[in-house]
Amino acid sequence: MADRPYASKHMVGRxxxxxxxxxxxxxxxxxxxxxxxxxxxxFHHQYPIGPYVADFFxxxxxxxxxxxxxxxxxxxxxxxxxxxxxxxxxxRVLRVTNxxxxxxxxxxx
Length: 109
What we know:
Blueprint: H1 14-20, H2 24-33, E1 44-49, E2 52-58, E3 63-68, H3 76-88, E4 92-97, H4 98-103, H5 105-108
Parallel strand pairs: 3-4
Antiparallel strand pairs: 1-2, 2-3
């Protein structure tokens, strides 16, 4: 885990499961973010950070990108706690809706 300084041991493994079952918006955004296509920035998909798994993480930029779909509508308080925790680790959090990814990918990127 030396290469995953933010990871908690119990979340490593869950990240693999989540990567195996991506949502359509995750697949689409990952297609653009992978292979250092955005300014040479390396992104990770479903990356464990503390008690959470970030949808996308760029260590060099200290950036977490979270996709929010309809399932997040009733999780606003939990999402706020998650964001607060990630920011306490010195990370910036960008929340993007699935709708924005599917219908405005260029603007998201």
